[in-house]
Structure formats: structure tokens, C-alpha cells
Amino acid sequence: MPIEIVLVEDSVSDAILFEEALKTVSGPYELTVYSSPDVFLNEVKSGSAIKYDIAVLDVDLGAISGLEILKKLKEDERYSDLPVIMYTGHDHSSIVIQALKCGAQNYIVKSADLSTLEAALGIELVKAAFKGIRKKTSFESPEDKE
Fold first, then answer.
1. Other Cβ atoms within 10 Å of 27 Cβ, number
2. Which residue ranges form the domains of the chain, and what is each CATH number?
């Protein structure tokens, strides 16, 4: 079963860079890209975004920021455990700190060097795969069976 990744990114060139980095990470995955944060937020409100295992959010999305979307995700109990990576062109420590305080698992600065993005994606894909295995497997001790 592939890991479902959602990318909310309004820049076509940055979305393409992200897809290129994702190709280097092993494992089955499905990528859905939203260029409009409003369309993604409608999915969140309706509950249909629950299928995603990892969310990657650009910080600068125009009218609404990725940080605002992050807050909405973490405030909604359906998405509070969803791993979120912030993906942005800003390297300001205040934004990094704010994103991490709001519940982001990682903060990646966009660049032509994709190694940091590849590493972060690899870590989150492993976590998502493990989480999927744990959901499907019962970890009972021998004492539980008595």
C-alpha cells in the first residue's frame, strides 16, 4: 500500500523540484499536489484529506500561509497526528521556530541541493510506513493472551 503524500505548493518549479527529490527516495508512494491552498483546505474541512500520511506545506502561499494551514491541521483532531514538513524559501529562524512550535516535524529550505529534502522525506516515509504496519499488527505480549 503506497504512502500518501500531499504537497501544497503554489510554484510549479518548486513542485517539480520536490517531485524530483521524491523520486530518489525508495518506497511506494502517491503524491498529490495542490497549487491552491483553498482547495486543500476544503478537503481538510470535508475530511477527505484524512487519506494522507504526510503533508508538505510551502510557507508562502499568497492569501493564506502554510503556517496557518499547519495550525488548522493540528487543531483538528482528525489531522493532529499528521506529520507535516514545512517546505520554503525562507531561512529565518523565527519562522522555523514558529513552525516547530505549531507542530511541524521538519522545516526544509528550498534549494537546488535536494539532499536535505531527500533525507527528510526518507525519514518521514519510514515513519509513515512503520505507523501503517503498527495499525495493521497487534502487538500482544504472551501475558495478554492468558
1. 13
2. 3-145 (3.40.50.2300)
CB 29 within 8 A of CB 4: yes
Q: For residue 22, give the nearest of 108, 90, 132 by alpha carbon.
A: 108
Nearest to 82 by CA among 45, 107, 36, 49: 49
| 7-19 pLDDT tens trace | 999 999 889 988 8
Beta bridge partners of 60: none
Buried b (16+ CB within 10 A) or exposed e, 52-90: bbbbbbbbebeeebbbbbbeebbeeeebeebbbbbbbeb
Which of 57-61, 77-81, 120-124 is predicted least confidently? Answer: 120-124
More confident residue, 95 or 26: 95
* C-alpha cell at position 9: 505548493
